[in-house]
């Protein structure tokens, strides 16, 4: 499986890729009300305003999901992204009831 596809959902997330990708995008939109980036994604300013627990590592995963960068261009992204998706989802749920 190639991880270098720009603009494509990340094939490394669990078994249901499309739902994980869409889940994060929808939760971020619900919490931030921001869809200014390409394809309706949240911007960095709104992302980091959600909660102090969200870090650069979480943001780089969003950049990867959005297709802004290839995996090898990011220096702070974990091998598997399941835990990152769970953290972002949990923070969004706590803040916005997603």
> What structural class should be given to the helix and strand makeup?
mainly alpha
Total helical elements: 4
Shape estimate: globular
Number of strands: 0
Largest β-sheet summary: none
> Fraction of residues in helices?
40-55%
Mean pLDDT value: 78
Low-confidence stretches: 1-15
Order of helices and strands: HHHH
Radius of gyration: 12 Å
Spatial separation of the terminal alpha carbons: 31 Å
Task: State which percent range the strand residues make up.
Answer: under 5%
How many distinct domains?
1
List keywords for this structure.
globular, 49% helix, mainly alpha, 98 residues
Secondary-structure blueprint:
Blueprint: H1 17-32, H2 44-49, H3 56-66, H4 82-96
Helix pairs in contact: 1-4
Model description:
The chain has 98 residues and is mainly α. It has one domain. 49% of the residues lie in helices and 0% in strands. The chain has four helices and no strands. It is globular and about 30 Å long. 27% of the residues are buried.
What can be said about this structure in brief?
This protein has about 100 residues and is mainly alpha-helical. Helices cover about 50% and strands about 0% of the residues.
